Each structure stands twice: as C-alpha cells, then as structure tokens.
C-alpha cells in the first residue's frame, strides 16, 4: 500500500477557507511585526521548559521566537539525549520584548547561575524587556541576576532554596507576576504561564485562540502533579526519577 | 552584583539525600536498560508535539529517547524559527519499543504522508514496537502507513479528514488506544498521552512520580482548549493564528 493521496482536500478543515478569505485587517500582521520573544538555552536545560511556551507564543500575531545561547548551535538537555538549536548567540541579541529563562536540573541550574556571561546578558537584556519570565528553576537564574522582588514561584523542590537565597516569598501558584517579571512553577507550568502572557501581549481573545490552536484542554490520567498534596514517598520518587534521568 | 554562591546547599531540596541514599533495588536501572523510545521528526513538525512527550518519557527508569529523522541534523518546526536536532537517521534505527509520530501544519503533514521513505520506515519499525503512537496530525501519518484500525483521535480540525480518508471513527478524547496504537489529540494532548503510556510501560506509581517530576497540575487561565465547546469564531481564529505563524 502506498501513501494516501492528499491533494483533493486539506488535512485541516477550514484552513483553505482561512487562506481564501484572508486575515481581517485588525489581525493582519507580518512575521516580525509582533513581539520579539527570546528564549535562553544553556547546557542541561529541561526540554519542555522552553518548548511549551515557544509553541504557544509562536502563534501570537507577528511574533518571532528565537532560541538563544552563549554560542549558536545545538544545546543539550538535562538527559543529554536531545538538543535544541540556538539560532542566535547572546552577543547577537540585545533587544527583546520578552525574555524567557527555562529551568534545568541541579547541575545545569547551578552552572547557569554561576556563569557571568549569561547573568550579565540577562541583566542587560532585562533593562528593555516588556516582560522578563522564567520557567521552573529558571527563576533561580533570574534571582542570581538580581531580578526577583517580593514574591516568585519556582520548581516545588527549589522553594526553600529560592526563599533562603534571594529573600523572596515562594508562592505555590502556576505563575506569579510581580511588575514585569513572571515566574512559572515547574516544567509544564510554562504552558499555563504562556497563555497568561499571551493575553497580556495580545488580549484575551487571541490567548483563547492560541489555547484552541494547541488543543490545550488538559485531562491527565492521574492527579499527582501538585507537590502540596503529594506524599513524601511520591516526592522522593519524583526526585529520584529526575536524578536518574540526568546522570 | 555577582552571581550568588550556590555551593553550600543544593538547588533542589532532597536531591542530595536521593543521591546519598541511592536508588532502591526495584528501580535501580542504568540508562539504556529501559524502553527505547524513538520520536520521528520531519520538516514542519509542531514543536510541542514531540517535546512534551519526550520530557515525560525521558524520566522513565532507564529510558532512552531518541529524536530520529530522514537525515541527522537540525529539523525545522512549522514556524521555521526553531529546530530540534535529529540524533539518528531512519537508516540507523530499525528497532524501537515505542515509536511516536508528531503532528505538523498542513504542509508538513501532507509532505510526510507522501514521503515513501518515512512511511515505509514507520511500517517497518511498527512491526516490532510495543507501542506505536502519535500526537495531533501524526495520526494521519500513521493512517497513511496503514496502521489505524476502528477508532483514533487527531487534531480537532482534522477529524473529518481522518474519518473520510482512513475509514476510522474520530473519538474526541485526549488519547485513544486501539491495540498497540495510541493516538493523541492536538499538540498539548501528547503530554496526557505520555502519562498514560508511562503507566503502561512502568506502572501507575512511576507515572505519578513523573507527573510530579514535571509538576503537571495544569491550571490554564482560560477554558478554551476544547473544540467541542468552542464557537465557530474561535475556531476560525485558532486556524488563522496557526496559518499565519506557519507562513
């Protein structure tokens, strides 16, 4: 059996109609006319932290989403099995509307916090952003750059480190906004934060359209993602699975 | 201000204890001793489709998660702004425990369905998988390979295409299992499907541990991700945002 013919109709119903009727004037935008969103990758980042928000934010009208790292090229995740390409080096980027700093495992987070080139770049870029954001332990990296005030969130297992190191209150929400800084909780919380951010950047209706575009109607088969209600045993298991996968 | 010192305590509370006490015999596994999971990338894939499941499945004890494409190297997403590295070419991989085929926009999906090298490889690898899975329009690619039976899910806007082209019933669930084939709904549904799959591969307790490891306790700020309850206007907007971002 060969591949099915696909020419008679479009795979996505309604896509042809959209193309035929064009974009209403109010939302007709060319790529690059919308927000410039930069995501900082560094060795050992956790894969979903940047890619979840990137998926959603890339659907904002006219948005550009750029993966940035100390040097251009592939950047390894915490498992060392996967890489995402950095399309630009930090030396090539000094102006962003949105900066997003993802989280990592222990090793990657500490290395980023102690890397003056990354920390100095984050501070410099932050001066002109509209929003400076983080996912998971990325908030600790914002903390290392001196950008946290009052309250923030982070990965559940890093809450006490956040409070004792940076003197900010840990808030166990999916995302926490203080001024122009938005921190998200662990890994998957970046997706919820991205929807909130999309609404701030382009309005609630566009954010709702993006939610439908990525069919984000979550129904996990278990209800075990909240550390506040997890047993000590499950917390140990979660950290063990992370540690083992990051060896 | 320089970076904060990070040497006195660990960023992730409990991580040191986990390392010190070691892994109980029941879950002590070396990388590569668990499931071999392969994710097929192709030009124009949607970023979250492979990366959401990869994040979760990479925490399975001993798992290897390998990004695979027709050729090794960077593979562009549907927006053409981001690339994920394919670590292996299809010629290098003929045995997987889990195959995952992500979705793409109109152009990427059709090109993959009509690419005999990809379709033949999917068919060949499927013969020995434990699970053959898809996210979003990836199910149409499984359909092109002749692997769908009875029921499946797909991206909401592709439901009628799925039914009319492959003669299977579209089921509007987050994921649908028929035999060893599991199809997930659009984009973000791959995360829910990955938890279900993790439970099948390693048991409910490990799946719950993974859910906590990625803090997957979703609370989106809107409730607009379900096509069954979305207005026609919102559906049009969602498809327009997709079409614009994929130009």
TrEMBL record, chains A, B:
GO biological process, one term: regulation of DNA-templated transcription
One matching Pfam family: DJ-1_PfpI
Residue span, DJ-1/PfpI domain: 36-197
Top-rank lineage group of the source organism: Bacteria
Key words, A-Z: Signal
Signal sequence coordinates: 1-30
PROSITE patterns: TAT
Positions in coiled-coil regions: none
Designated name of the protein: DJ-1/PfpI family protein
Organism for this UniProt entry: Saccharopolyspora elongata
Upper classification of the organism: Bacteria, Bacillati, Actinomycetota, Actinomycetes, Pseudonocardiales
């Amino acid at each position: 059996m060969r591949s099915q013919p696909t020419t008679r109709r479009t795979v996505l119903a309604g896509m042809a109609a959209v193309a035929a009727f064009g974009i209403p004037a109010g939302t007709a935008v060319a790529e690059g006319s919308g927000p410039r969103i930069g995501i900082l990758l560094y060795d050992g980042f956790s894969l979903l932290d940047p890619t979840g928000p990137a998926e959603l934010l890339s659907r904002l009208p006219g948005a550009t989403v750029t993966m940035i790292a100390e040097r251009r090229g592939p950047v390894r995740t915490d498992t060392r099995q996967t890489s995402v390409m950095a399309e630009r080096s930090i030396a090539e980027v000094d102006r962003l509307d949105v900066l997003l700093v993802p989280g990592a495992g222990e090793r990657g987070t500490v290395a980023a916090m102690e890397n003056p080139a990354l920390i100095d770049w984050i501070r410099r870029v932050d001066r002109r952003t509209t929003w400076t954001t983080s996912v998971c332990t990325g908030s600790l990296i914002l903390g290392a750059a001196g950008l946290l005030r009052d309250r923030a969130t982070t990965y559940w297992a890093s809450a006490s480190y956040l409070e004792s190191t940076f003197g900010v209150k840990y808030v166990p929400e999916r995302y926490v906004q203080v001024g122009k800084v938005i921190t998200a909780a662990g890994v998957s919380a970046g997706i919820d934060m991205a929807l909130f951010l999309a609404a701030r950047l382009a309005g609630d209706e566009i954010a709702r359209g993006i939610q439908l575009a990525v069919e984000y109607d979550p129904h996990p088969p278990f209800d075990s993602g909240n550390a506040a209600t997890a047993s000590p045993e499950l917390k140990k298991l979660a950290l063990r699975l992370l540690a083992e996968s990051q060896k």
